[in-house]
Amino acid sequence: MKQTAHSFILLACFMGMSITTSTTFAATSEIGIVMNVEGSLSAKGGDGKLRVLAGRDKVFTGDMLFTGKDSYARVKFSDGGQISLRPTSQFKIDKFSFDEKQPGKDAAEFNLLKGAMRSISGMIGKRGDPDSYSVKTREATAGIRGTKFGVRLCQGDCDDTPLPDGSPISDGTHFDVLEGTIIVKNSSGSQLLNQGQFAYVGNANVAPTIVPPERAIRVDIPAKISLDIIKAGSENQTGKGNSAEIVKTEAVKAQTSEAGSSAAKAPESKQSTGGSGENVEAAPGNDSGGGGGSNAPAAVCPI
Question: Which of 57, 41, 106, 52 is nearest to 80 (CA)?
Answer without folding.
Answer: 106
